[in-house]
Design a protein that fits this description.
Shape: elongated
Pfam families: DUF5689
Number of strands: 5
InterPro entries: DUF5689 (IPR043744)
Distance between the termini: 48 Å
Domain DUF5689: 76-127
Strand order of the largest sheet: 3-4-5
Organism: human gut metagenome
Largest sheet: 3 strands, antiparallel
Protein name: DUF5689 domain-containing protein
Number of helices: 2
Mean pLDDT: 80
């Protein structure tokens, strides 16, 4: 009887210790980027990106189809006048878990939003 109690106590301790951490297959997330990470770059707003596109193409209608990259209109932004690369600070909004936003994501900042088309679904690689 004493051995059964000791075995049960050891089993309870083992299960308690093993049950404390259940994310064995999921790596720790990367720390969020801060403004210091982009110190050598220049920030550009989504409104400015849209204006650069409009300056070149004069309209945001008829910019291409979703089924082909061949007729897609685009604008290369390049670097700022001071030679720095640009970055956009905003939030990424997307979830194609249920198939409602497939092969695209939306980048949103305080001046607007843009849709970014992708060549693959997101949920398989980045499940929420």
């Amino acid at each position: 009887m004493k051995k059964i109690i000791q075995f049960c106590a050891a089993l309870a301790v083992a299960l308690g210790v093993a049950g404390c951490y259940n994310d064995f297959d999921m790596p720790a997330p990367r720390p969020a980027a801060t403004d210091a990470d982009f110190a050598d770059m220049e920030r550009i707003s989504i409104a400015d990106v849209k204006q650069l596109f409009l300056d070149e193409h004069k309209s945001i209608s008829d910019t291409g189809s979703n089924s082909s990259w061949n007729d897609t209109k685009y604008t290369l932004i390049g670097q700022s006048e001071s030679g720095k690369d640009y970055y956009i600070k905003g939030k990424v909004q997307s979830s194609d878990e249920e198939g409602n936003i497939y092969k695209s994501l939306h980048l949103v900042d305080e001046t607007g939003a843009i849709e970014v088309k992708l060549s693959t679904g997101l949920y398989i690689d980045y499940p929420m």
